């Protein structure tokens, strides 16, 4: 360390809630993997691998996934509207179709310039387009005034938790395992995370009795439990909720007056069964039993980062509010105003996601081909990985269901657990670190998401192309087991 | 109101710190102006004006300002890299120059896809480009590891205040008048804003004795004053600090061990004198008096939203840290990781801003012409507005100095103050509301930024084209004064 005089800030006096927040997806392992990547880029040949595989984060376009052509063509025109003065060149020489040009013109007419701030909750016409999509998806009305365009779903979660959490005593039910955004945000807000466990024995299903138990226990301690987070399809588990499960959750939310936060960013990444939106199920319940469910408050989140869109880097998303008090909505509006607005080009991408080319449109055929190819690729890779896990000693993994992840259990020999303890590490972290050092494959240890005491897991995306890296995991695991047996 | 049963959340039980936060720039007046705009768009002819002029917010491209061609050409290629397969068409038919194509290729080689998450602190090569710019600007080294790319400067301020504020007792010195992002963020964090007044009698200069007084008073009350915000050039005042003023501030920061947060987003919007960066002055002091200033911590912020770039909607920016403890930097890195990364296309725009075409480059001539035309236009409009204010009874305004704003004092007759009180409004808010209703011109009342007890101001941008709106303010003011005299 340098000998500069100490400044005002040090690790002991910064915001303790920042200090406490944990975010394993981009933690020590991720940082180390980037160091390896930089080393390899410098031509270093010391490492026992030639490539770093970032299977720690759902970042499709960092790996193999190509963006959807229609989306990017429209965005290129939004970025440089001067190109619209050359329609003939676009159409005849650059492969742009008429619907690309029309859409770009329409978006520009509504947003003005993508370099201008929009309304704090997003460009009104884009919010209307989202509302139209939700109506088509669910068969129930949606109102543009209840839609908030956000910088990815993360920023939406941040907004909602900021407004919902009154103080340290506010409790939010969060599934375990979970995407660590939730626990990190609650730590920052100094609110109480009330964990409920998903049921690994039923393919990570949502078990309402587990939710009830966790809620009752927290309430008995005096916690003001006021919201429940549901990630459907699940992250890191991939599990997809049945309509009955959603009804049970909504029923419980109604009884306990819990705000439902439905993280539905993987709604198109479903391999088994069918995605059911919380909004549709809530509206159906309200229709079936008039009056009974009227007080239920639902916030559902979506993003351009996931699905077949996979445009993480653009930071676009939205959330819809159902049943929220107008005065509470005004506070949400004020909160989003403070950071001005979501990136406008990402708002345009949200519009393209919810309103893609339709059959008969000039760009439809290519769009449809690209979309299906991405979907099928993801599914194939998921199964290839799953089959590889099936061959690994002490590893158990349910059949892939959706999202972009697998979350196998791994049973590690006692000697390995001891070796981990000697390093002051959790056993799953120790395992993932050794794997990274040996193979260049970066996973996230289960402890980053939470797991039942005494169980160990890791999360891997199934985005990386090829099978070599899968083979290297199998090989590493064999060596690891042999070493510590 | 509807008769739906009350939900869990209401205005009395949401986060009290969100409730307390104020953000006048996008408050009641702004919302009302948007309603008027929508009315006019529907063809409504009831209103006494034909156009809404949003002079409340520094949003150049919402008004007259065109984006700089070089920037948007490069971004269009980053959005649709397939266009790079048609270089001949780009060059010969679409007016793209070779440096546009080269830059896009370089950015894509460094970022991968703009649809992929980057490193949490931004694409390394773009951080290096920012560091290179800072070295050229200041004549002192800069390190890419100390640069954090952010979603506009607002998100940088949010990050820094989050880490700096330990609890309710943490005090941050904030200039009054100020951009309300600071007070709003401190309210959200439940930390203490320690206001210090700028000196209107010296063209809104920074008066170190006022800072000392405010700091001493807060410390006497037991507040842990640990940082000072300086907005240079000023918002809403436009004032530009002299090198001596900056030395005095840094000296005081050294004595009191205050972290300096230098909001330098208007660094190129300077009409009078010259911009001096805090970094350069700090490094100069450190060179002149070795050892003495080594412990000073400085964070300086920049954005693509302001200057001649004016790309607010893209949400790009960065901050540089100087003298921060590595462990504190690690907390900052973790904090930004939780929201993953700044929009990657906006990161590319940051790179273009700090590394624009140079003399001799194919795109230089047009870039230079566009840049200077924007600068001169802003200056002309600022002076036209200033001259108009000079003719208004009871209005006083210093000569335009920089940024995008004028912040005149207005003396309102006692009868108008009474009428405002009868409506339960501050007098400046009352004035601005009547102005909006009569003319469609939206300003921000001085109370939104803070002002000395007993004084009234408003802030207006000088971005809107034409002179008609200026005339309508003059006319309104005359009528207002006559009515309430």
UniProtKB/TrEMBL annotation, chains A, B:
Q: Name one GO molecular function term.
A: pyridoxal phosphate binding
Keywords linked to the UniProt accession: Aminotransferase, Pyridoxal phosphate, Transferase
Kindly state a single biological-process term from the GO annotations of this entry.
L-alanine catabolic process
Q: Which residues cross the membrane?
A: none
Every copy of the Aminotransferase class I/classII large domain together lies at: 98-467
UniProt superkingdom: Eukaryota
Requisite cofactors: pyridoxal 5'-phosphate
Subunit: Homodimer.
PANTHER family named in the record: ALANINE AMINOTRANSFERASE, ALANINE TRANSAMINASE
Similarity field:
Belongs to the class-I pyridoxal-phosphate-dependent aminotransferase family. Alanine aminotransferase subfamily.
Task: Quote the protein name from its UniProt record.
Answer: Glutamate pyruvate transaminase
């Amino acid at each position: 360390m340098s000998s500069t005089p100490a400044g005002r800030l040090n690790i002991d006096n910064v915001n303790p809630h920042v200090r406490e927040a944990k975010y394993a997806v981009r933690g020590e392992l991720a940082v180390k993997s980037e160091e390896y990547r930089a080393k390899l880029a410098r031509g270093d040949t010391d490492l026992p691998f030639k490539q770093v595989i970032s299977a720690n984060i759902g970042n499709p376009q960092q790996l193999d996934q190509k963006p959807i052509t229609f989306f990017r063509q429209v965005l290129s025109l939004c970025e440089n509207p001067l190109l619209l003065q050359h329609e003939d060149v676009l159409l005849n020489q650059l492969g742009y179709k008429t619907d690309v040009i029309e859409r770009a013109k329409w978006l520009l007419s509504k947003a003005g310039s993508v370099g201008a701030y929009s309304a704090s909750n997003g460009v009104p016409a884009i919010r209307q387009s989202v509302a139209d999509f939700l109506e088509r998806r669910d068969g129930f009305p949606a109102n543009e005034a209840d839609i908030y365009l956000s910088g990815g779903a993360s920023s939406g979660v941040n907004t909602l938790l900021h407004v919902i959490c009154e103080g340290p005593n506010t409790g939010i039910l969060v599934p375990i395992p979970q995407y660590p955004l939730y626990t990190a945000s609650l730590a920052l807000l100094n609110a109480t995370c009330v964990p409920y466990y998903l049921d690994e024995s039923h393919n990570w299903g949502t078990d309402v009795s587990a939710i009830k138990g966790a809620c009752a226990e927290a309430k008995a301690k005096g916690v003001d439990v006021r919201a429940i987070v549901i990630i459907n399809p699940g992250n890191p588990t991939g599990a997809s909720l049945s309509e009955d499960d959603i009804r049970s959750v909504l029923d419980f939310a109604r009884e306990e007056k819990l705000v439902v936060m439905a993280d539905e960013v993987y709604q198109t990444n479903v391999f088994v069964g069918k995605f059911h939106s919380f909004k549709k199920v809530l509206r159906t319940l309200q229709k079936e039993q008039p009056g009974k469910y009227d007080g239920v408050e639902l916030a559902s989140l979506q993003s351009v980062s996931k699905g077949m869109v996979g445009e993480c880097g653009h930071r676009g998303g939205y959330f819809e509010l159902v049943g929220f008090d107008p005065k509470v909505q005004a506070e949400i509006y004020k909160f989003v105003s403070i950071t001005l607005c979501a990136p406008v080009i990402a708002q345009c991408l949200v519009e393209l996601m919810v309103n893609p080319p339709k059959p008969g449109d000039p760009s439809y055929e290519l769009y449809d081909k690209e979309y299906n190819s991405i979907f099928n690729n993801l599914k194939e890779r998921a199964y290839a990985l799953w089959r590889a896990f099936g061959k690994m000693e002490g590893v158990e993994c349910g059949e892939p269901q959706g999202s972009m992840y697998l979350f196998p259990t791994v049973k590690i020999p006692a000697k390995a657990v001891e070796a981990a303890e000697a390093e002051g590490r959790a056993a799953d972290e120790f395992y993932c670190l050794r794997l990274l050092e040996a193979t260049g494959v970066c996973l996230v240890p289960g402890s980053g998401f939470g797991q039942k005491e005494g169980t160990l897991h890791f999360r891997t995306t199934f985005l990386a192309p090829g099978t070599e890296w899968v083979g290297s995991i199998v090989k590493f695991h064999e060596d690891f087991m042999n070493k510590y047996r």
